[in-house]
Every structure is written in structure tokens, then in C-alpha cells.
Design brief:
Blueprint: E1 8-12, H1 13-18, H2 21-27, E2 43-47, E3 61-65, H3 72-75, E4 76-78, E5 89-93, E6 107-110, H4 117-124, E7 146-150, E8 155-158, E9 162-163, E10 167-172, H5 178-186, H6 189-197, H7 206-210, H8 216-226, H9 256-264, H10 270-273, H11 281-290, H12 313-325, H13 333-345
Parallel strand pairs: 5-9
Antiparallel strand pairs: 1-2, 3-10, 4-6, 5-6, 7-8, 7-10
Helix pairs in contact: 5-8
């Protein structure tokens, strides 16, 4: 069993009971045991109050698990499934993608202003200790800013939306703490500290996040260098994110033709139609530019082959893209975009 004088160690209860008291004390005479972070199979996490650790993330904020409505298949959708975001549906933040500070924004939830099917399900099974009782979990963090933290270590910025149980959210006590804490995650400091605390692959609970050692002064200095312009503003080039601006020319590599085809069929992204959504100035500029692109097909019906006087889809898409890309469209652009789309779908494509 691994024992260190760092923050935590994990031990089997049966081994603790069988161990000699002096052996336990040799780990750290200041050891304080807590069963607040239980593990399966009689494993528990025990806090070690190491005098060398002066502060932790829990000194500067708190973490919470996200909601569980008890029937995700019924209550959750991807935002692109309906033509537009329907009434009574809210955005639902989920787990982050590695290396992207604005991600995990693909889902919506049938919220119905807290007066619909989710509430009815929770009420109907309240005597069963059902997962649906967690439909409001994380509520104190809604409308606040912080960090989304995956159970397996990924992270992104949190903008106050409802968030699901696939992730946790950490909200700092003061807004000025967020940038150094983001820098701590961005530079790998959180993952490194967590690895010293715990050998397991997944975060056990919000208490684990709060117990990670963190030196605010050190990371404030590094944040000024790493993020000289402050916190990154909301922006995404990924069309699977509701923050996406909708412009195919500035979409993530390999998705440009998908975005162009969606626009030709009449689809628009939530960021284009939601004036209240917080976005970067760059995203707003892209949205303004995309409004000048060629209009969509009148009825959204795009036959693959020429039919009843309409051109085939390939020809229409080619013409639309040439107008959208303007002078940047060359004889090689089409082949480049097709290759990028194939490589995204199959990394081994050549």
C-alpha cells in the first residue's frame, strides 16, 4: 500500500484494522482520518494534515457534483436535434474535452421551468432514494463562473449553466481567483498534485478537488504571463458546441463542409440567435460576417441528383462554398476540404 506524507492516501479498512498503531502513526503523527470521501469495496480516503501544505483549493472556493434527472434518455438531447432551441429546454453543461477551455456544450435538458416531467419523476420515486432526487444538485453554482472538472481530469471554463453528473464544477470564492486557478489547471499543476495524492484514475468526489494543494501567490504570478489578456472569452470553432459562431470558413478543420451543408439546408447555431449569450468579440464578429453569407435553400430539401429543375447537391454546395469563401476559394480548396473531412472521420485516411 502506498503511503506518503502528501495530502491523502487510500487504504483498505481491513488492513487499517489489522495494522499496528505505531505503523499508522509513522505515516504522519498529525494524521486526521475522515470518512467523508467513501470508496467502494471498503476503501476510504484518509486525510493527512501535512504541515508542509499551507493551502488547498478548498481555501479559495468549493466544488459540487452536477445534477442527475434519473432518465437522461428522456430528458436530454443534443442542441442540434431540434431545428431551434425549443421553449422549456435549457443548456446543459457536460464533461470537458481535453485542451479546450470552452467545451462540453452540446446538450440541452427538458427543464420546463422546474414545473414539468423532471419534477414529476422525482416526486413519484422520492420514497425509493432514486437518482432523480438529484435533479437540482449543483444549483448553488448556477449563474456563477468557475471551472468544469471531469472525473478523469479534463477541465474547461464554466459559465453558469446547469451541469450534469458527468462532471463537477469548482467555483472560486472571489472572481479574481479564477484566472490563477485556470492557470494551475492549464499548466498541469492540478493533474500532477492529484497524482501525488491519489493513485486512482478518477476523482472520487468534490472533496478530493478541494483538498488539492494550491499556492495562490505562485499561480497569480504565472497567470499574468500565461494569460496576459485575462480570462479567455467564450469562443468555439467546434460546430458541436452551442458557442459556435456558424461560419464555415472559421470552423474546426474537417468540419467546414459539414457546416456549409447545414447552412445551405437552413440550420443556424444557438449563438447566432441568442443575443443574451456571453461571447467573445471575435465570435460576435464571425456571427456578423456569417449573416452576409449566401441564403439557405428555400425549403431545406436538397436532392442528391438534379430533380425537377434543381441542380444536384454537390453542384449547389460547391457554388455556395465558392461564394462563402470568396477570393480564398481556389481550384484546390474543394479537394483540401474533402481531405480534411475524411481525415477527421478516419485519422488513418490517406
Amino acid at each position: 500500500m502506498r503511503r506518503t506524507k502528501r495530502d491523502f492516501f487510500v487504504a483498505d479498512v481491513r488492513e487499517i484494522l489489522q495494522a499496528d498503531a505505531s505503523e499508522c502513526l509513522s505515516v504522519n503523527p498529525l494524521a486526521q482520518f475522515s470518512l467523508s470521501d467513501a470508496r467502494p469495496d471498503n476503501e476510504f480516503r484518509f486525510m493527512v494534515a501535512d504541515a508542509e501544505i499551507s493551502s488547498r483549493l478548498g481555501n479559495f472556493g468549493s466544488a459540487k457534483m452536477g445534477m442527475s434527472a434519473g432518465d437522461g434518455e428522456s430528458f436530454e438531447r443534443c442542441f442540434w436535434e431540434p431545428q431551434n432551441l425549443p421553449p422549456n429546454w435549457d443548456f446543459l453543461q457536460s464533461s470537458a474535452d481535453e485542451g479546450n477551455v470552452y467545451s462540453g456544450r452540446s446538450l440541452i435538458i427538458h427543464w420546463q421551468n422546474e414545473n414539468g416531467r423532471i419534477v414529476a419523476l422525482a416526486e413519484s420515486v422520492k420514497h425509493l432514494n432514486h437518482a432523480a432526487q438529484n435533479w437540482q444538485r449543483g444549483r448553488p453554482f448556477w449563474q456563477k463562473r468557475g471551472l468544469v472538472i471531469n472525473k478523469f481530469g479534463g477541465y474547461c471554463l464554466y459559465e453558469g449553466d446547469k451541469f450534469d453528473s458527468r462532471c463537477m464544477v469548482y467555483v472560486p470564492d472571489k472572481p479574481e481567483y479564477l484566472l490563477p486557478i485556470l492557470s494551475f489547471f492549464h499548466a498541469g499543476g492540478f493533474s500532477a498534485a492529484l497524482g501525488e495524492m491519489d493513485d486512482s484514475l478518477a476523482l472520487g468526489s468534490p472533496a478530493t478537488v478541494e483538498a488539492v494543494p494550491f499556492d495562490l501567490g505562485e499561480w497569480e504570478e504565472l497567470a499574468r504571463t500565461r494569460f496576459p489578456d485575462g480570462l479567455p472569452e467564450p469562443y468555439s470553432a467546434d460546430p458541436t458546441q452551442w458557442l459556435f459562431h456558424g461560419h464555415p470558413c472559421y470552423a474546426a478543420s474537417g468540419t467546414e463542409l459539414h457546416v456549409a451543408l447545414a447552412r445551405l439546408a437552413g440550420y443556424r447555431w444557438p449563438a447566432e440567435t441568442d443575443a443574451s449569450m456571453r461571447l467573445s468579440s471575435e465570435a460576435r464578429a464571425r456571427i456578423a460576417e456569417v449573416a452576409t453569407l449566401p441564403s439557405a435553400d428555400a425549403d431545406g430539401l436538397l436532392p442528391l441528383n438534379p430533380l425537377l429543375g434543381e441542380r444536384g447537391l454537390a453542384d449547389r454546395l460547391r457554388t455556395w462554398c465558392a461564394a462563402a469563401w470568396g477570393k480564398a476559394w481556389t481550384a484546390d480548396t474543394e479537394a483540401t476540404l474533402i481531405t480534411a473531412a475524411c481525415e477527421r472521420a478516419n485519422p488513418h485516411y490517406s
